[in-house]
Amino acid sequence: MSDPKELSITRFIDAPPEKVWDVMSNRIEEWWCPKPWRAEFANLQRRPGGVSNCTMYGPDGEVHPHDGMVLAWDEGKRFAFTDAIVGDLEPAGPFMIGIWSIEPEGGGTRYTAKARHWTEEDSKRHADMGFEPGWGACADQLKELCEGG
């Protein structure tokens, strides 16, 4: 039984987990949002409690800042962010907790991205905003970077 407050995307990536993790964590701006949008991380403290400041830029001049906190950074396995806490432990939002993880599968890697919401209404709103095509495009971009060399 699935949780109505959680949305998820998964992909099999034909590359070893070490390579997928390297691309996920060290080339994050290259896959983080669907093209032609682009992401810039002004700050990403890779530790629980670390600050995350990302701004997404659209092709028509759109600017969407996404500040939050790193909840988990398990090297080689997963990271998680939330928009519920920003800056120096200031409450915000909240809208969701995002969890991006990998695990070995056969000769490659299973990538999974989850968005956990506080309410079913927020989950539905995120789905209606285009969660599946948006996060799916990001997963496809990550897959292409990992498999492409």
TrEMBL record:
Listed name of the protein: SRPBCC family protein
Family listed: Belongs to the AHA1 family.
Recorded superkingdom: Bacteria
Domain Activator of Hsp90 ATPase homologue 1/2-like C-terminal: start-end pairs: 14-146
Pfam families hit by this protein: AHSA1 (PF08327)
